[in-house]
Structures are given as structure tokens and as C-alpha cells.
Design brief:
The structure is a single chain. By secondary structure, the protein is mostly beta strands. It is built from two helices and nine strands; from the N terminus they run H-E-E-E-E-E-E-H-E-E-E. It has a domain of about 150 residues: Immunoglobulin-like, CATH 2.60.40. Helices cover about 10% and strands about 30% of the residues. Strands 1, 2, 3, 4, 5, 6, 7, 8 and 9 form a nine-stranded antiparallel β-sheet that branches.
Amino acid sequence: MSYPRSEDSNPYFRPRRPGSPPPDQLVEPTSPEARPSLPPARPREQSRPPVRRAPTLHPPYPLHPRHQGLSQPPSSPAPQPPPPRREKPRPKVKVDETPQPAPSPPSSPVPPDEPHHPFHTRHPQASSPPLPDPRLQPPEGERGRPTNLRFPPAHKTKFLTWCLAAFCAIFWVVIIVGGLIVLIVYLVFRPHLPKFEISSATLNAAYLDMDTVLNADMTLLANFTNANRKVRNDFSYVILDLYYGGNPIATQYINPFSTTRLESRLASVHMVSSQVRLPSRDNEKLKKQLENNALLGFQLRGVVRVKSKFGSFLRYSYWLYTHCTIILTGPPTGVLKQSHCQTKR
């Protein structure tokens, strides 16, 4: 199938008669008698205007190798065409053979400096369509598809809601301000818990009456130390309990007192137990220790109410719980051998 094209101005592309030299070869003029007789040339058909196709938005299709200037097809083997199908003969249709006038050439021919190819057409720059207004577009779903969601209408906030929000705001402000005050006080005063220790202990007497009940007499010297440099401590309630094998045998109350900065206060405590019945297991254990003059172990537990004064404007009260383990020699001259105390809130 051949496609018409405009007349080329390049002499190399003009049709030549058989036996004529190329355009760049010089030929001497010959006489009219020496010229060979040539058959009359056929009249050149009137060139038809190029067919203009409608512009498309997709790229042009790939060209056949013979139209791309290739002398040989690609090395890959060409696919074999399928066998022709046998079709039924169609009825013949009469064709009107009346010659139609040739169309007139276009007013604007193709410029010679631009390459012309029947498969390529000049695509005019397509004008970009106007962007839609996003305010008029419906809401989109997960994959960009329009949804039928309806936004709830705006409602006026209730007065109760405003009151609740104000209460929450004031509450959190108070919590934050209180935390800042506690942090500042701690960084300024550096408070420490008071310390409780047993400085000395004496076991004056300890025996079993009728091998079933315990009678004992013990004297303790308790030491209360205030380790703060800027805080004063007031001990308003102090009570100590004496235990043997987990069984309470004596208790004593200490009068209130105060300690200034970096001060230690000693308190003498007299513990007396009378007619205290012990379990049979602990009774047998104590009897053997007294007979062998072995070391005796006791436990001392105390409950203390402390009030700390941070200057003259801030006071803080809390409870302290102390637990001590003391080991003494046998009576009547039992002395302290070892003691260990722990104090916590």
C-alpha cells in the first residue's frame, strides 16, 4: 500500500528515467541525433494532498522496519501467520465507477524544512482542562471514590459542657501548681527521715515461773537522730513493743519530745514483762538457752508520729515504723552484743 506525499524539492528524491545519470555527475551535451530514442514518458499523476489525521493523546504506534530506514528486519524470527480461514462467498455489490474530482490542495502546504512521514502527524498542544473546584466535590473514601457521607450540622455547646471543661482545667492547674511547690520545697530543704537506733541494752532478769510463764526485766537506751539541716522534727507519739519468738512480752510509751537540726535525743526505756505465757515450743527453747547461759534474741518494734517543720509556714506530718533485732547475753548481767534497726514510712 502506497501513501501519497508532496513533491520533493531535493533532486535525489525526484524520479529518474531509465539510463539517466545521477544528479551530481557531469554529462557532456550530445547532439539530438546521438540521443537514443526513449519511449514517451507517462503523464505524472496529480499529487494528492496528505491525509491529516485527528490528533490523539497517546504516543504514535511503532513503525515498520522498512519505514525506519532499516535495510534488514530484526534478527528475531518473524511469527508465522495463522492459516487463512475459509469464508463463505459474499454477494457482489455494484460499485459506481464514476470518476470523482480530485480534492484541491491545502492552502498551507507542509514546510520543506520539517520531515514529513505518513505515519506521524503534528499534534497540537492540547489545552489543559480547567481544574474542578474542591469545595464542590463530594467527600472521597479510602481509594478516592466518592462516598455518601453526611456531615452533622453544627450545634451550640451546652452550658454544662463549658462548666465541666472549666472544672477539669482548674483541677489540672491545681495539681500542676501543687507538684511544683512540692518539688521546690524538696530542692530547698532536702528533708530526710529521722533515724532510730538502740545504743545500749541490759537484761536484768529473765526466768520461767512454774516452767510455763515468763518474767523479764530489760533496760534500753533508744537514740532518735534528726539528720536534716533545715528541718525541725517533733515526735508527738512514740510507743515500743518487745517480742520474743514473735510473741509480745512488754510494751512502753515515751513522752513527746522535739529535735532541732542535726540533733540526737536519747530516751531510756524500761521494759518489764510479768506472767507472760509462751507457746510450748518457744517455752522449751527459752528454757534451754537459760540453762546453757546462751545468747538470747529479742525483737523491738515501734510506731512513731513525726511532724516536720519547714521554716515557719509549712508543716508536714507522717508515721514511721521501726523494727530492731537485739541479741544479749544471759541474765542477770546480760549486755548488748548486736543490734540492727530499720526505719521506714
